[in-house]
Amino acid sequence: MNDFAVNRQTFDEVMVPVFSPASFVPARGEGSRVWDTEGRDYVDFTGGIAVTGLGHCHPELVRVLREQGETLWHISNAYTNEPVLRLAKRLESLTFADRAFFANSGAEANEAALKLARRVAIERHGPEKIEIVSFKQSFHGRTFFTVSVGGQPKYAEGFGPVPAGIEHLPYNDIEAARAAIGPKTCAVIVEPMQGEGGVVPGDPAFLRALREACDAHGALLIFDEVQTGVGRTGFFYAYMDTGVTPDILTTAKSLGNGFPIGAMLTTKDIAAHFKVGVHGTTYGGNPLGAAIADKVVELVSDPALLEGVKQRGEQIRAKLAELNQRFNLFKEVRGKGLLIGAELTAAYEGRAKDFVNAAAAHGAMLLIAGPNVLRFAPSLVIPEADLDEGFTRLTKAIEAVVGAAADAQAR
C-alpha cells in the first residue's frame, strides 16, 4: 500500500531542482499514447527524448522483462551472463564492431569512449597525444568529462576548471576541422546528426573529411550515436548512411526502450588497450537490461521496420509543410527518419517552449532542441492514426499560440 499522495507540486518539495517538468504527471503509457494522473490522454511525439523507439509497454519487451525478471536481475561484473553475451554478438553482427562495453547511459558510454581513445593514443604514440576535437552545439552527456567535451559551455560553467586538451570547432566546417586535427589529436568525437544542438545533419563530405584527417594523424574517430542510433534515422545506426565507419561508436537511449543501458562498440585492436581493471561499472551489462536490449535490437534491425521509419518521417515532413503553408512558422525543417527539427522563423524566435506548452494543453507531447527548434522523436512504429490525431491536436495548439501573438500585437 502506498502511504504517500503525490502530485506535480511534490516534485518541487522533494527533488533536487535540476529539471523543470511539465505541469501534468504521466501515469501510464501504451504504444504512442500516454495518460496522466487525471486520466487525460496525450499523443507522444517525444519518445522519451528518442528513447521509447518501440513505444510504451511493447508487449514483446514486457514479456522479456517478466521472463528475465523471474530469472536473474544482477550478478555483477565478477561474472558474465548469457543475455549480455547474446546482445554483444547481435550488435557486432550488425555493425563494424567486434568488441562491446556496456554501461547504463549515453554519458557513461561516451566517458568510456573518451578514456579509451586517450589510452590508445598514449600507449601507441606517447603522453603528448591527448587532444580531443569536438564541435560547437554538440552534446555528449553530463559527466564532468563529457560535459566539457560537449560544445555547449553553459553545461560546464560553474564547476571549476575543465579538463585540458579539448577544442570545439564549428559543425560541418571542413576547413576548420582539417586545420585543427593534427599530430597531438587523440580523438575526434562527433554526432552524425546533432540532436540537442538543433537537429542538424552532418554533411557526408564533412564526416568523410574527419575520417581522412583522423587517418592521416593517427587519431580515432568516435561517433556519438546515443540519439541517432537503433533505427532513429531509418538506418540501424546513422553511420551506415554516411559512407564513413568510425573507430568507436556509442549508443544508448533507444537501445533499452527506456530501460537504462548504454554501450561502446569498437574493434578488437582498439579494445585491447583497455586491460582488466582500468575501467568498469557495477550495473553495466546486467542481465535484465541486456535481455531487453537484445529484443529491442532484434525487432528494430528488421529491414521492414527501418523502411517504416523512413516512411513515417516523410509523413511528418508533409504535415509540417502543410502547417507551414498555413501559419508560416518554420524557417527550416531538417533531420532524418524520425528525428526531425523544425526551426521557427524570426517572428517566433525563442518561443519553442511556448509551442510545447500549448501542445501539452491540447493533448500532444512535443520536444524542443534549443529555444528555436521544435523536435519530433516519436516511436519508430507510431501508428498512422496516432500521427494524424497528434497533428490535429498540434494544429489547435499552434492556432492558440499564433492567435495569442496576433492579439498581443493588435493591442
TrEMBL record:
Keyword Cytoplasm tagged: yes
Top-rank taxon: Bacteria
EC identifiers of the protein: 2.6.1.11
Chain positions found as N6-(pyridoxal phosphate)lysine: K253
UniProt keywords, alphabetically: Amino-acid biosynthesis, Aminotransferase, Arginine biosynthesis, Cytoplasm, Pyridoxal phosphate, Transferase
GO cellular component: cytoplasm
First-level EC class: transferase
Compartment list: Cytoplasm
Cofactor detail note: Binds 1 pyridoxal phosphate per subunit.
UniProt keyword annotation of Transcription present: no
Chain sites annotated for binding pyridoxal 5'-phosphate: G106, A107, F139, D224, E225, V226, Q227, T282
CDD domains referenced in this protein's UniProt entry, alphabetically: OAT_like (cd00610)
Reactions performed catalytically: N(2)-acetyl-L-ornithine + 2-oxoglutarate = N-acetyl-L-glutamate 5-semialdehyde + L-glutamate
SUPFAM superfamilies listed in its UniProt record: PLP-dependent transferases
Recorded metabolic or biological pathway in which this protein acts: Amine and polyamine biosynthesis; ectoine biosynthesis; L-ectoine from L-aspartate 4-semialdehyde: step 1/3; Amino-acid biosynthesis; L-arginine biosynthesis; N(2)-acetyl-L-ornithine from L-glutamate: step 4/4
One Pfam family linked to the record: Aminotran_3
Annotated N(2)-acetyl-L-ornithine binding sites: R142, T281
Cofactors (names): pyridoxal 5'-phosphate
InterPro entries: Ac/SucOrn_transaminase_bac, AcOrn/SuccOrn_fam, Aminotrans_3, Aminotrans_3_PPA_site, Class-III_PLP-dep_AT, PyrdxlP-dep_Trfase, PyrdxlP-dep_Trfase_major, PyrdxlP-dep_Trfase_small
Other information: May also have succinyldiaminopimelate aminotransferase activity, thus carrying out the corresponding step in lysine biosynthesis.
Subunit structure: Homodimer.
Family indicated by similarity: Belongs to the class-III pyridoxal-phosphate-dependent aminotransferase family. ArgD subfamily.
Designated name of the protein: Acetylornithine aminotransferase
Native source species: Trinickia dinghuensis
Gene: argD
